[in-house]
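Practice problem: predict the structure.
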Amino acid sequence: MGVALVSIIFAKLKKENPMAIIITDECINCGACEPECPNNAIYEPSEDWKFEEGTELKGDVILPNGKKINASESQDPIDEDVYYIVPDKCTECKGFHDEPQCAAVCPVDCCVPDENIVESETVLLAKNNFFIENKLVILLLVFSMNRIFFSFGFYSCLFF
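Answer:
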């Protein structure tokens, strides 16, 4: 699925603040959720963050929701007191797991659905495909370079 098609699908379904999981004020800042996030969308309180962290995004990018960002620029923290989830990076683990991993590991159950903002599975999968597609481009380039090196015998000197 091309980036343009993902963007079109997402644009049709987008909401003002596309977030369905939040970390509540009951968070004890234990950090159990942060390493579980496959999109690196969870950050410590007061911590600046970047879209490029945990993704292959670099430089100027148009997110599936149409927002133009520079993936390499630092962003202000969303919360100063408790861990927080970056809405544009969160896919609720769709495409990775059956349930949001932050909620699965939270010892105080503070990773909860935001009942005011609900994303459809289609929107979440479109976001996931966007991040995966950018990773696949890098993998395809590496694979292509390996084929070129192998076909020209560059690897033969390593084995003989």
